[in-house]
User: What shape does this take?
Amino acid sequence: MKEHIKILDFLRGFAALAVVLFHFGDAALPTLKQNYLSNIVVYGKYGVQIFFVISGFVIPYSMMKSKYMISDYFNNLLRRFVRINPPSYVAILLSFILYYSSIIIINRPISGMDWPGVNLTAILANLSYSVPIFDTTWYNPVFWTLSIEFQFYIIIGLLLPLIKTKNNTLTSLSLIGILSLGFLDLEWFFDYGSFFVLGILLFLKREQLIHKNLIILLFFITITFCYFQNGLVELIFGLLAFLAISSKFNLNYKVTNLLGKISYSLYITHWAVGSISEIVLKRITNLHEYPFGKIIMILIYTSIAICFAYLFYKYIEQPFIQYSKAIKSNKK
Assistant: This one.
């Protein structure tokens, strides 16, 4: 059984909350834009880079502890599909509720909502996280990161058997290959590959699968690639996640544990929940018309989103976590 690493709960919760505050305080809710927190919460969008580093560490670490073999490849993908996809499909339903509720309540879609319509292309592209391939858009704009994550699941299932051979040359070439493809502008996973590689390096170090001096060399190669491919600010947030995971801190608080537990539910539902809340509450109160009132409304919307995410986790996400665990590997 794999060890539970408490710092990951804190990081997941922090990253999810940062993205929520970015959307509520700067990007998604029209009446709350241009508030006193805008210049701070705008950095919340980089919570995504933190998630990518976490996945780069956690996914191969979990696979290694479950004694993953290439024969488990499709069962492993199925487990990830059952764990991730069904809750996201329920979250897509929230987007439909948001769109049609806004038409009923305010006689138009909410400002800035790029609705792809109800057609076979849009539905299949959203359900398969392949929107960039088709001429359509996301029902839920935060789902672009889910497509990146699932592409990583596909790649790491093929890469892990090469890594765990303890062949330093093979491991190095594999990781540098991922980093190099980021320069080809292939979009999708490879544009963010350096963040996942930072997480993989943490996994390699923890499991002692590669010489420590080579780890240091690959680390500096990775951050160099990350700087030129993604920029300084993104690199800083990736490094913060890297340093936090590599630290010995064992943050074990009820609040951070809870936020970490519901982080996926919070991430995939907050945009629709916050938007629906704004449509309703701004017709009840005019707090959003005042500078400090906007701050209060951001806190109210965030509280509603967290409460909803807890219920979503308990009744939607958690059952599918159990279903995914019931899928067995091909090992005898």
